[in-house]
Amino acid sequence: MHKIYRVNMTDLSVKIEPVPEAWAGLGGRALTSTIVAAEVPPTAHALGPNNKLVFAPGLLSGTAASNAGRFSCGAKSPLTGGIKESSAGGTASRIIARLGIKAIVIEGQPAGDTWYSLVVSKDGVEIRPETETLGMGTFAVVEKVNERLGEDFAVITLGPAGEHLMAISNISVKDPESKIRSFGRGGLGGVMGSKKIKFIAVDPTGGAALKLADPAKFKAANLTFTKTLNDHPVSGQGLKKYGTAVLVNVINEAGGLPTKNFTSGQCENHDAFSGETMYDNIVARGGEPSHGCSIGCQIQCSQVYNDKDGKYLTSGFEYETIWALGADGLITDLDVIAEIDNVFDDLGVDSIETPVMFAVAMEAGLLPWGDGKRMLQILREDIAKATPLGRLLGGGTGHVGRAFGLTRIPVVKNQAIPAYDPRPIKGIGVTYATTTQGADHTAGYAIATNILNVGGKVDPLKNEGQVELSRNLQIATAAVDSTGLCLFIAFPALDIPECLGSVVDMLNARYGLSLTGDDVVALGKHVLKVEHAFNLAAGLGPETDRLPEFFELEPLAPHDVTWDMDQKELATFWNF
Amino acid sequence: MHKIYRVNMTDLSVKIEPVPEAWAGLGGRALTSTIVAAEVPPTAHALGPNNKLVFAPGLLSGTAASNAGRFSCGAKSPLTGGIKESSAGGTASRIIARLGIKAIVIEGQPAGDTWYSLVVSKDGVEIRPETETLGMGTFAVVEKVNERLGEDFAVITLGPAGEHLMAISNISVKDPESKIRSFGRGGLGGVMGSKKIKFIAVDPTGGAALKLADPAKFKAANLTFTKTLNDHPVSGQGLKKYGTAVLVNVINEAGGLPTKNFTSGQCENHDAFSGETMYDNIVARGGEPSHGCSIGCQIQCSQVYNDKDGKYLTSGFEYETIWALGADGLITDLDVIAEIDNVFDDLGVDSIETPVMFAVAMEAGLLPWGDGKRMLQILREDIAKATPLGRLLGGGTGHVGRAFGLTRIPVVKNQAIPAYDPRPIKGIGVTYATTTQGADHTAGYAIATNILNVGGKVDPLKNEGQVELSRNLQIATAAVDSTGLCLFIAFPALDIPECLGSVVDMLNARYGLSLTGDDVVALGKHVLKVEHAFNLAAGLGPETDRLPEFFELEPLAPHDVTWDMDQKELATFWNF
C-alpha cells in the first residue's frame, strides 16, 4: 500500500500521492484520525468545504489474515462536532488494499447542484456526474452499480438520508452478498453527501496479493491467531450461533438493558427478541445463523434472517439495533424489528442513533410506544423524503430531545447511548463519557470485563477500577481499529495469551518489522491522543466528558442505582 | 429591597430570606448572574430541576430615576447552554422593587402534570394550580389576570411556546398599557415552562416609595441625568421619533444590513420598512410615534403602530425584528411585518431568534422567501400548537440549520446573530464572539462607535481597536444592566461627561454610598467574570468564542469583506 488518492471535489481534480513517511506505519483508524487531525481545521463546519472524508483499509487488510476485512472512515462528525472514526465490513477494504491504495482523501465540495460518483481503480479516480441513482436506497444503488460496472466492484454509497445531509445518516458498504454493511455512527453520510458524492465504486482489476516480508511467519501466525478466535467461547461459539443478539438475555439478566427510553434496566419482553429466539426463527425459516460481513471472517456473527414465508428480511442484525427497537422502544415483534433494520440499511441511517431517537420521540408522544408499523411509515414517508417531520427526526436523538424539551436524552457529545445502561454497568459509562467518539460502546467495550468475565472481572456496580479498565480497553481498541481486524478479536486477545502475540507477529511478517506488544499499545495511545487533541481544539473540552444529568438523578431498577462517579475521577482517564 | 423570595416548585414551598451581605450591593444582572452562578450546577440540564429562574429589579428600580424600569431575568439557557441574563421593560420591576423584594428565585420542578401560577405580594408567594389560562397567548393571559386580580398587578407570563418548552420561547412582561415586553433571548420561557408556571402576578398593594439616603442629592442627580438623555441626539431625538428602526437606513448605508440569510450587506427594499416609513405610517394612521416601555421612560423609543384602518397592530416594534423579517427574510410589507411582530409577542417567542430561524428555513426551501403570510400560518398553526413542524422550528436557528444540513447558520453559542453583519462592522463581531450570552448585540453595542460615532470613532472595516472597544462596552453594559436603567442611556453616557457621574450620584444617594466611576467599572468586570466562569464550567470553552465559519469563507457585498480577525487576538478580550 504505497499511494494515497486525493480527490478534490471543489475543482474536481484527483492527485495520486506517495505515502508520507510519517504515515507509513499507520492504517485504519490510526491513519484516518491522523489525516483528519492534520488537515481539517477543528472548528470547520462538518458539512462545509474544509471537512475531509478519509477512507483507509487497516494494516492487515488485503492479506490472508482472518477477520482483517474491516474498513475505516474518518472525518469531523456533523453529529458530535468532534473527530469521528467508524468501522465497517464489506468488500471494499480488501479490494482497496490489494490495489495498493493506503487511503482515499476526499476534500472540498462542488459549488453547483450536480451530484457525482467516483470510480476508483488502480490508475486513479474518475469523477463522473451522477443522476440515475439519486434518491435510491442503498440496496438499489448496489444493484445498479453491479449492473453498470460489474459485480466484483466494491461499492460505498449513500441512501436518501445521506443525500439529505441528515445527522442520522451513515455510509453503506457492499458486502460479499451485495447486502449492506455500514460506517454507522456520527452522521458520516452527511459529510459524503455534502461533497455531493452518491457512491464510490472500486474496480478490483489489477489488484494483487500483497507482498509479505516473511510469508512463512505470516502463515504460522495467522494459524495461531485463527485458532484463538475459534477457541474462545464468545468468538468461537456464542457469536457464531446467536450473533450479537446473544446479549439480549445476558444484559437483561444483568439489569442493564435500557428499557422504555432508559427508565428501567430490564424488559419483560426480552425473550421475544433474544438471540435464542432469533436463532430458532432462522433455523425454522431456512435462513443462515452464521454468516460473515467480509471475506476471511472466522466469527460469522452475521446471519440471514427470513420472514415466516422464508423470504429474506435482513442480515447484519445486531444486538444494539434489536435492543433499541425491542427494549428501548417496546416493539415486541422480532419480524417487525427485522423489517425496520432492513429499512435502516436501505435509507442509510445509523441503526443505533435512529431507534434511540425514536424511543425519545415515543416519550415525547410523537408516536405510540412499540408502534413499529408507524415507525416504518415515518421512515419511508418522512425520513426518506425529508418532510419537515423527517427533518425533525433526521437530526438524531439529541435534536429530537431538545425539540421537545425533554430532560431524559440519552446522548454523550450528542451521539446516542447504545444498549448498555451505564448506571449498573459503570465501566461502559466511563467509555461513553470519555471516548473521543461520543457515546460508543465499541470504543472500549467494558461489557467484556464487567459482565462477560472476559479479561478478568471488574464489578459492574462499583466505580473502583472502571477508569483503568476503560482506558486499557480504549487503548487496545484504537490499536485493533488500525489493523483492519474485527474488534471481536478482543475476546480471545483478552483471555488467550497467544492471540495478541500472533497479531504482532502478522504485522511484523507483513511489513518486515520487529514490533512488540508495547508498540501496539503505544500506537493505541497515540491514536487516542491525536483524536483528543482534535476534540479539545474543536471545543469539546473536559466538561463534555460526562454523562447526561438524568443518570445522576434517576435510579434504575432493578439495582436501584444512579451514575455516581466523580468527574475528577473520570478526568483521570486521560492520565497516560 | 431587603428580602429574597425563594419558591421551590418541587415541594411547592416558599421561603422569605434576608439578603446575604455579599449580594447587598448587587441588583439586576449582577444579582441574577451571581445567584445563578452560585446555585446552578453549570452542567445541569437547563430544563431540569437543578436549573433556577431568577428575577431581580435593578439597583435604581422603583426610584424616581428616569428610565429605571428595566427588569432582569437569569438562568442557565436552554438555547446556549451557558448563563443567560435577559432584560425587559414593563411594570414588574418597579412594583417588585417597591415591595422591598430584591430577587425572586424559582427552583426545582413539580413531578406531576399540574401547572401553576404564582401570586407574589408583600407577604410572600402563593402557589396556585392553574388551568384557565393554559394554551392562551400572552395578551389573553394579561387580560385574564387583569380581570381576575386587578389591572394594577404586574404580570410575567408564558405564551404557548414557553408551555411547549421551545428554545425560541421567551418570557413576557405586562407593560403600562397591558401590552407585552419581553425577556427575549436565550429560551428562558422554556425554563419557566419546565417549572410548570404559566404566569406570575405581582400585587402592588403595600408597595411604598423607596427610602433614599440623600433625597435632595438623588433628585439633583436625576435632573442632570434626565437632561443628558434629552440632550443627546440619539436618545433625545432619533429614538424618540423613529424608534430603533431608525437604524434600517443607517445600517443599510453602512453595508452591514444582513440580507437574505446573511448573503448581502444591503437590501434593495430597505425603504419599505425603514424607521422613516414606519413614522409616516404611524402619523398617517393615528398611531403614537413615541411611547415608553415602562414608567419614567424619557426616551420613548416604543410606539403604537396601526394598520391602514387605524386598528392597533403592534408596539415595541424593534429594528432587529423589522430587519430580520424585512431584510433577512425579504418580507417587504411593513404591515405584515407588524402583524408578525404582534404574533411573536402573543406566542411568546424571541422576535430575533424566530425570524432569523425563518430566514434559515427559507434558505432550506421550507417556505418561500418573503412569504409573510405563510410565516403567519406556521406561527399560528404549527408553533402555537407544537406540531412536528412547529417542534422543528421551535428549536431555533441552529436547530433548523442543522436539521437541513446548511452551512450558513448565523448563530454564536447556538443563539441567532442579530441585525448587524460582523464582516463590515467588526466591533459587533467581537461582541458576538466573546459575550457570555451567545450572539447578542446589546451585550456590547459596538455599532455606537463603529457606525454612529458615539463614544468616538473606530473604523468598522478594520480589526484594530475592536477588541478593546467591545471589552469596554461589555463591561459598561454589564454595569448598566445591574442598575435597572435602560441600556440606551449608553448614548449620552458615551458622549456627555455629566451622564455617568449622575448615575453614580444616584446610586450613592439611594444607598448612602460613596462609589466612584471606577467602582461601576469594577462591578461590570465582576459580572462578566462570574458569567464567564459559569460558561467555562458548563463546557463553553474558548473555542466557542468564535463566529461561524461561513463569515470567514463568504465575502459580503458591498464591501466585499470577510471576517478575518485572528482567534488569538479575540482571546485577548478576557485580559482584564
UniProtKB/TrEMBL annotation, chains A, B:
Keyword Membrane in record: no
GO terms assigned for molecular function: 4 iron, 4 sulfur cluster binding; electron transfer activity; metal ion binding; oxidoreductase activity, acting on the aldehyde or oxo group of donors, iron-sulfur protein as acceptor
Superkingdom of source: Bacteria
One Pfam family linked to the record: AFOR_C
Alphabetical list of InterPro entries matching this protein: Ald_Fedxn_OxRdtase_dom2, Ald_Fedxn_OxRdtase_dom3, Ald_Fedxn_OxRdtase_N, Ald_Fedxn_OxRdtase_N_sf, OxRdtase_Ald_Fedxn_C, Tungsten_al_ferr_oxy-like_C, W-dependent_AOR
Residues annotated as domain Aldehyde ferredoxin oxidoreductase N-terminal: 1-206
Alphabetical list of Gene3D superfamilies matching this protein: Aldehyde Ferredoxin Oxidoreductase Protein, subunit A, domain 2, Aldehyde Ferredoxin Oxidoreductase Protein, subunit A, domain 3, Aldehyde ferredoxin oxidoreductase, N-terminal domain
Cofactor requirement: [4Fe-4S] cluster; tungstopterin
Assigned keywords, A-Z: 4Fe-4S, Iron, Iron-sulfur, Metal-binding, Oxidoreductase
Entry's family note: Belongs to the AOR/FOR family.
Protein name: Aldehyde ferredoxin oxidoreductase
